[in-house]
Every structure is written in structure tokens, then in C-alpha cells.
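Closing statement on the pyridoxal-5'-phosphate sub-project.
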Amino acid sequence: MMNIPLCIPNIDEEEISLVTDVLESGWLAHGPKTKEFESEFAKYMGVKYASSMNSCTSALQLTIEALGLEGEIIVPSFTFSASANSIINAGCKVVFGEIDYETCNIDPGKIEELITDKTVGIMPVHFAGQSCNMDEIMEIARRHDLAVIEDSAETIGGEYGGKKVGTFGIGCYSFFPTKNMTTGEGGMITTDDDEIAGKINVLKAHGMSSSTYEREKKERPWLRASIEAGYNFRMCDVLSAIGIVQLKKLDKMNDLRREHASYLNKYLGDIEAIETPVEIDKAKHVYQMYTIKLDTRKISRTNFISKLRKDGIGANVHFDPPVHIQPFYQSLGWKKGDLPVTEKVSESIVTLPMYPQLRKSELDHIIDGVKKAVG
Ligand SMILES: Cc1ncc(COP(=O)(O)O)c(C=O)c1O
């Protein structure tokens, strides 16, 4: 029987060889490979600075802290809990915004009604590989003088109006193995702002004004200046080596995701009980996930997914329950019914396998499996 997991990281000889070089080099911590990865990532995104992190969750929290934000931040609830958690952990208050049904991204038309005199930022989350409507979001942010922290964990290499997702505000990216590119665990922040980049680099490395690698080249490498009570959110050279190779392959991997998605759309598009994903006009969708919506008035999602799984198709759900009705957020006063569109999408969404290496026979197996499962 075919076994098609939800995703498989795309690792070749080149990643293995560069990791081996680092392991044999005698320098494993953040160092020359991390610098190279950051500089290549900044070049790819077309920004001045890229600062590597140990995760996107750290990246989001650190960005809020480096910006010095204190107050309310608007974020969708239809996301992974890390988006909202980072706001709490940075000492701010979460205000959940509603999503647009079609794209599952935050609905810009419903942001302004949430803005109060305490609002300090918006955190758009680019869901599953597709950019939010950044024209409208940036316009609202400008009008109300709000920071924009883009949670681009799921959309590395995606574009809006020809511009890379994550470069409108401050961009935060994830290199978890399910993402468009991976380092195992890891993240990145991108910005053009000299001052913010400086603060991020200090805060992520124990609040010190120089790195271990830089100090090693100095006459008195033991002299450290702790100018903040910082964290250790650093990436290391072993993982950066994977990132350097993955970044070189990113566009090719995303092109394959787009080809697979258009093949699935073509053959799943006319099944009445499901809705295939929609690419909005200005966006280049990079399908970190391929999600469909199921008509759950006609078909039980649990049965649908268990039929697919029995057929070796690793379907899953992202995200249900949405964050606002997770136990912690309910304890803050959020409840079912607060975000009807989010809740409706959460109840009907299904994630099908998506990764660059999928073969035509596997795509056909997914299509046949879905057809069988809807009856
Ligand atoms: C939208 C979103 N934000 C944040 C994260 C957290 O990223 P990380 O696992 O790198 O901390 C994830 C997924 O893992 C995510 O999907």
C-alpha cells in the first residue's frame, strides 16, 4: 500500500556534506556558517538584515521586545498557538482578529474595529503559504501608527505584489521540518531597520554587545559587555549549514509545491463536497500546506480523515480548535462564538500531504483517496 505522509523534509547529499564539514571544522556554535546563512537569507528576501534564531516563536517574541511594544497586538486566532503565545510572553495583550473565509488569512476589513488607544501592533499570519492582503494591512498600520510583525512561519518565499512575504513589516520565519525550508528547528527575523537589527542581535545572545565568534578574534576575548538581560535564542553553525543548502533550493522546492497544488486543484476542484485553496490576485502562494474545506454538513471530517489515513494518505487538520478557544485563552475570557468565521473554517478544514518530492502516482493516489472518502 502507498504511504504518503503529510510532509517529508527535502534533504539531499549536499545538506549532509555541508553539515559534515561543519562537524569536522571544530566550530559548532554560531559562527561563520551562521553569518553566511544570514547574509544569503537577507539577500534572498531583498532586505538589509537577517538575524537567525532558534525558532520562529523566539523570533516573534524578540521582535515585539526589540520594538519596545507595550499594549495590545491584533493577531488571527486561526493559527498555531505560538503566534499568540509570543505576544503574551513579550508582555503584551492578545486581541484576536477575524479571518476571511476564502484565504483563511486575517480579514483587513475587520481590523480597524479592534483598534483602541492601547493597540500597538498587528501580527498578520500568512497561512499555509499565502500572503495576507498586505496593501490593506500596511495602510491600516500607517493610519494608526502601528507596528507590523509578520508571522511568515508558513510562507517562506511567498510573495505579494512581487515583494517577498515578511518584508512589509518585520518578518519572522520558521525552519521547522514541516515548513517551506528547514534546519530541523530554527527561525529568522528580517528588517531594514539598523536600530532594531542591533537590538535583536544583542537580545538574542544573552544581552551581550559582541558574539563569542567575534570576541575570539580579539586580544582580550574574555571581555563581555552585558547591556541587556537577554536570552539565548541563537542558531548554531550545524543547523545553519542545512539552511544554506535549503535556501539555495527554496525556489525550486516552492515551484514544485505550486505544480502539485495546481494538479490537485484541477482534479479535486469539481468535487461538490470540497473547496480547493484559492490564490488571491497579488499573491504567489507557496503551499507550505495544501488545505481543502470539507462540507461537514454532508460528510463527517473525522470519518473522511480516517478513510484517507486507512488509504495511506497522511491527512490532518490545521488548525482546530483555533487559538481563542484553547484552554489558556478561554481562561483569559475568550469563548466559542467570538469568531464565527474562524470557527467555521476550523471545523471544515483538512490538510492533505504536500512536499516537493511528491510523485504523480502519489498525487493520483491522493485524488482517488479523496474521491473515495467523499463517497
Ligand atoms: C503560523 C506559525 N507561527 C509560528 C510557528 C512557530 O514556529 P517554530 O516552531 O519555529 O517556533 C508556527 C509553526 O511551527 C506557525 O505555523
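The longest strand covers residues 49-53. With this model delivered, the sub-project is considered complete and its resources will be redirected to Aim 3.
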